[in-house]
């Protein structure tokens, strides 16, 4: 599915080909909550990195999150969170550990996205105490990460575009 997205101020526009375009996985970790400026529930889609085309690249910033470890040490994430330096909109995540993939934030997508047959709410052990998490009939709630990948979830629901087009 061809996705087109932009930041709020319009200085950055992008497009890419998504193989996993359904916004089902809602993350409530502190990184997503703070970088997206809300309650959490950042939603990343799966796209092919080689299809990413960007206008306004000079207005991009990249943030690499600091991740606290169990031994209270901190490491820098390899994930590169791209955002507009003009308005701060979160746009996509790219991680060189998976160079074939890019993960656009559903909140930055202007293309109408497919309806969700169910949502998976993750990292609830990190959510802010004031956040109310939806509890729909088909919602799944997890304190950590799901065992099922973004790709596998789409495949199980018959929503994966693995044609390579």
UniProtKB/TrEMBL annotation:
SUPFAM superfamilies on file: Mss4-like
Keywords linked to the UniProt accession: Lyase, Metal-binding, Zinc
Gene Ontology MF, one: carbon-sulfur lyase activity
Pfam families noted in UniProt: GFA
Keyword Zinc-finger annotated: no
Domain CENP-V/GFA positions: 3-154
Regions that span the bilayer: none
InterPro entries: CENP-V/GFA (IPR006913), Mss4-like_sf (IPR011057)
Family: Belongs to the Gfa family.
PANTHER family, sorted: DUF636 DOMAIN PROTEIN (AFU_ORTHOLOGUE AFUA_1G09754), GFA DOMAIN-CONTAINING PROTEIN
UniProt protein name: GFA family protein
Protein's organism: Marilutibacter alkalisoli
Taxonomic lineage of the native organism: Bacteria, Pseudomonadati, Pseudomonadota, Gammaproteobacteria, Lysobacterales
């Amino acid at each position: 599915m061809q996705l087109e997205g932009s930041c709020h101020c319009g200085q950055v526009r992008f497009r890419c080909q998504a193989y996993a375009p359904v916004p089902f996985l809602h993350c409530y970790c502190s990184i997503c909550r703070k970088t997206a400026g809300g309650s959490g529930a950042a939603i990343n889609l799966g796209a092919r990195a080689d299809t990413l085309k960007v206008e306004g690249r000079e207005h991009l910033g990249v943030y690499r999150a600091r991740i606290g470890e169990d031994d209270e040490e901190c490491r820098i994430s390899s994930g590169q969170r791209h955002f507009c330096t003009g308005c701060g909109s979160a746009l996509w995540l790219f991680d060189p550990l998976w160079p074939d993939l890019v993960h656009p934030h559903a909140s930055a997508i202007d293309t109408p996205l497919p309806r969700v047959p169910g949502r998976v709410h993750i990292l609830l052990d990190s959510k802010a105490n004031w956040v109310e998490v939806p509890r729909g009939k088909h919602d799944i709630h997890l304190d950590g990460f799901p065992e099922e990948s973004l790709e596998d979830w789409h495949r199980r629901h018959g929503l994966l575009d693995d044609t390579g087009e």
